[in-house]
Amino acid sequence: MKRVTLLIATMLLSLSAISAQEVKNIIYLIGDGMGLSSVSMMMVENGYEATIFDKANNVALQKTYSADNRVTDSAASGTALATGHKTNNTFIGCTPDGKAVESLLDVAKAEGKATGVVVTTYLQHATPAAFYAHTESRHNYEIITEQLAGSSLDVAIGGGMEFFRRVYGDNIQNTIEKQGFSLAKELTDITQHNGDSRLLALLADWEVGSNQGTYLADATREALRILEHRGGDEGFVLMVEGSLIDGMGHANDAKAQQIEMQGFMGAIEVAVAYAAEHEDTLVVVTADHETGGLSIVSADANFNLSEQGVEYRWTTGGHSGAMIPIYLYGKKSEAINGIVENTDIASTLMELIR
Fold it and tell me: What does the pLDDT look like over 152-166, one tens digit per residue?
C-alpha cells in the first residue's frame, strides 16, 4: 500500500512539474499603433482571403487607458504590456510614484530563460524600453541607453546607434563587449552569429526605417535561432515590435501603414510557423494602442449600388482610446479571454512561465 501511495505521489509531482513548464517559449508581438481597423484594412486589401490574423486559435480585446489618461501613450501602454502595471503617460518600467517594477523579460531571465527584443525603430524607444528600462520619462534616452547596455537581454535588434555615440563616444565597441555583448551593425552580422555570446545589433543611427520589406521577419527568425540556442531546455521569451505602424497612423497615410502592416504580419508568420514546429510555444499578438482613429467607410451613401467602394478615413493625428485586439496561437492560447486590461496580458504571461 505504501508503494502504491508513493507511486501516486511521484506521478502527481511529475504531472505538476509538466503543467508548470508547459509553456516553454513565448513570442510576444506588438504592433505599435495597430488598431482593429488596421487589421480590417489588411483583410479588405487581401480581398477577404484569410490573413495570419484569421488563423489565430483565440481572440480577445484589451483596454488601453493609462493611470493618468484615458488615451495612453506608448510608454504607459508599453509598461502595462511589459510589467502588468498601469502607469502615467511618458513613464517607462515604473509605477506613477516612480517605483521600478519587473518586466516579463526579467521574470523570464529569473526562470533561466533567454530573452530578446526586435524592433523596426530604435531600441531605446518607448515600447522596447519598457521591457528592460526604468525611468520617469521616455525621453531620457541617455539613461535608457545605459540601461540597455547594462541589461540582461540575450538578443536586441533594432536601431539607436546615435544614442550610444552620445553616451559612449568612441568607446561603444569596448563598452558593449565589457557588458558581454557582441556588436552587430548589419543583418548579415546577425546571420553569422552563433549564439555563444549575447548579441546587440544596432542596425541604424535612428530607426531601421520604414518600408523595409522582410527585415522584421528576417530579424525575428534570426532572433529565434539565437534564443533557442541560448535558452536551451529552459526556453526563451522574445518581444517583437512592428514599430512604424504607429508613425504611419500619425501621418494619416493608409498606403504607408499597409506596408508596415505587411512587414509586421511577416514577422507574425515566422512566429506562428515556429510555434507549429515547437508545441510548447505560445504566440501573442496585440498592440499598445490605436493611432489615427482609422475608419473604413463606404465611398458612396447609395446602398442600392452593387458596390460603393470603400475609403480609409482618419479622425486624428494622435492616438485613440479604442480597445485593441489580442490574437493568440499555440500552447495555452486559451489563457487570455474576453475583454481584459492591458496589464492582464503581462500578468498572465508571467504566470505561465513561473
Answer: 999 999 999 999 999
**C-alpha to C-alpha distance for 253 and 103, rounded to whole angstroms:** 33
Q: What is the mean pLDDT of the chain?
A: 94
Distance in angstroms (rounded) separating the CA atoms of residues 309 and 306: 9
- 349: in domain: no
Report yes or no on 306 lying in a domain.
no
Sign of the CA dihedral 337, 55, 275, 13?
A: positive
Burial 274-313 (b: 16+ CB within 10 A, else e): bbeebeebbbbbbbbbbbbbbeeeeeeeeeeeeeeeeebe
Query: With bands split at pLDDT 50, 70 and 90, how would you rate the model's confidence at 21?
Result: low
Is 0.90 topped by the overall pTM?
A: yes
In the three-class reduction of DSSP (H, G, I as helix; E, B as strand; rest coil), residue 182 is classed as: strand
Residue 69 CA to chain centroid, in angstroms? 22
Q: Rounded to an integer, what distance in angstroms lies between the CA atom of residue 350 and that of residue 34?
A: 24
Count of C-beta atoms within a 10 Å radius of residue 209: 13
Is 120 inside any structural domain?
A: yes
pLDDT at 221 over 90: yes
| CA dist., res. 241 & res. 216, Å (int) | 9
The alpha carbon of residue 208 and the mean position of all alpha carbons in its chain are separated, in whole angstroms, by 16
- Domain around 321: 23-232+261-292+314-339
Q: Read off the CATH number of the domain in which 328 is found.
A: 3.40.720.10
Amino acid at 224: L
Q: Which amino acid is at 181?
A: F
Could you tell me where the DSSP H helices lie in the chain?
2-20, 36-45, 74-83, 104-110, 126-129, 141-149, 161-168, 172-178, 187-191, 215-231, 245-250, 254-277, 342-353
The answer to whether 224 and 269 have CB atoms below 8 angstroms apart is no
Smallest CA-to-CA distance from 252 within 329, 320, 184 is with: 320
Give me the pLDDT at residue 36, please.
98
**Residue 60 and residue 325: Cα distance in Å, rounded?**
6
In a domain, 158, yes or no: yes
Domain count, the chain: 1
